[in-house]
Amino acid sequence: MSDMKISERFRGPDGMANGGWVSGLAASYLPPGRTVEVTLRAPTPLDADVRIEKTPSLVRLFDGDALLVEARPVPDAPVPPPFLEPERIGGVFVGETAHPFPGCFVCGHREPGDGLRVHPAPTGRPGEVAMLWHVHPALADWSATLPLSHVWGALDCPTGWAHLTSGGAALLGRLTGRVYGSIFPDATYVIVARTEGRERRKLYASAGIYELSGRLLAASRATWIDLDREAG
Description:
Distance between the termini: 40 Å
CATH topology of the largest domain: Thiol Ester Dehydrase, Chain A
Structural class: mainly beta
Shape: globular
Largest sheet: 11 strands, antiparallel
CATH superfamily of the largest domain: Hotdog Thioesterase
CATH architecture of the largest domain: Roll
Order of helices and strands: EHEEEEEEHEEEE
C-alpha cells in the first residue's frame, strides 16, 4: 500500500481528478504491455490522501474506506477507429465556446504545457472526431516520454467529445486501454475517436493515437454517463 495526493492541476470537473488521467495512473501500477480495464467507482478527490492498494492483477484507489478506482488486466485489446490522414483533419472543437469543464487537464482551455489541450473536431463523418495533437515539451516534465497517466488522458476525452454537442456534459465510467509505443514530447500525433452506440445514459466510444505515418501507439474504448439525459 502507498498514499499520494493528486494535484489540482490534473482536474477534470472542478474538485475531481480527470477520469482518463487517474485511469492511466492506476494502470501504471500494473505490468506493462497488457490491456487494462479501469472502472471509476466514485470521483477521485484532489489534494486529498488517496490510498493505493496493488497486486500484479489488481490495483485499487481508496479515499478512506471509499473505493474510487479499480484497474485490472483483461484479455481483449480495444479496436480503435481507423487512422485518418493528417491532411483530412480540420474543423472546430465543439467545446471551443461551450465547454462543461473548461479547466480540464486534458481537453480544457489550459495554457500550452500546463494542460494537454486535446481538442478534437468533427471530421464530417457521423460520430467521429479527430485532431493533430502536438505534445508540448513541458508535458513530459523530466522524462523522455509522456507519462502513462497523460497518454490515457489523451485516450479519454476524445471518446466523450465524439458524442457531445455544444453545451453537453458526461462523466467517464470505464476506460479500457492498451499502449503499444511511446509518445514523445515536441512531436505531433493523430488522435481519432468515434461513437460505438449508446444504451440509455451510457455512451460508448473508441479512440486511437497514431504516429503521422499511421502506426498505432495507443487504443481505448470508453463508457461514459450522459449527465444531460435522465435514466429510463
